[in-house]
Amino acid sequence: MSKVALAFDLGGTELRAALVDREGRLLAFASVPTLARDGVMAVVGQIEILAETVRREVPDAVVAGIGIGAPGPLDPKAGIVLGAPTLSGWHDVPLAGILSDRLGLPVRLENDANAAALGEWHFGAGKGANSLVFVTISTGIGGGVIVDGRIMHGRRGLAAEIGHMTITDKGERCFCGATGCFEAVASGTALGRRATAITVAGDGSRLRVLSGDAEVTGRDVVDAVRVGDPMAISLLEDEARWLGIGFTNLLHLYSPDVLVMGGGISNGFDLLRETVEATIRNRAMPAYRDVPVVPAQLGRHAGLIGAASLILRDEDETALQVSTGENPDNHTETEPVGTREAIHG
């Protein structure tokens, strides 16, 4: 069997693992709730167990290496998680080195949003594009940017923190401490918070019924729109307008061939699309208005597939260099995504 990658998607809620082949197919998959409050080594132990679990499912697989997407901020070149807010005690953790020592394989670490962007670019909605912006609208807002065939990392891998660009001077304060962040007004959490604020537990509203009289989620709002609830329709219209404003900024900043929307709120893409596109037409300069905004195709596995591509594309590049007589370690900053330096910095 050809070589595969062992991929991990490390989230604050769930840790997922897979064996992924060169076509982006998951050959084995396993997940567990992340021991996010128990410290670094507790999670490392979970990673070791999941690695063994998925490798048992495909015992003849030849694993080329490990790709892992993790919450930022992180430094992909150094392989260090700098300070993941969803993981207690994760400050300056040399995760790539720890896993390489524990599992005996080369490790590539990447921001989870960048990993998802790579997955959609190689195998999903952005396949064939030269430039892409991927935006995930979920609990928060994150994203990854590929420009001219290269993932944008910036200093210490901190580029393209999409959720924290300022799009208004109003609204509730973001967890980062600022007011008016894209995430603070347009995330699924923000949408659910607005829905919760205009309803009351036990009021019989469709939103509260769908939430089980608990706090309303963004997903509840989308579901209520699908059954024609007027309150939910108004909320989602506002959500689409905020998304359109944020997307317009991203189009002006990066001029991608395509903008891909993922995350839980993308399940309502068909309901959001008309207002998002109208907002872009009204706000974007003419040259940017024809950029397609499309839903992600890989769903919850985008990050795993993208993390795997860090290993498999690197493997392909090294093999090509060996076959042509080049020195695999002689890389330059001008190489495209898939080569060692482009992946790491």
Automatic annotation (TrEMBL):
Keywords: Transferase. It holds the Pfam family ROK. Residues 320-345 are annotated as: Disordered. SUPFAM superfamilies: Actin-like ATPase domain (SSF53067). GO terms for molecular function: glucokinase activity. Belongs to the ROK (NagC/XylR) family. This is Glucokinase. It comes from Rhizobium herbae. The lineage of its organism: Bacteria, Pseudomonadati, Pseudomonadota, Alphaproteobacteria, Hyphomicrobiales.
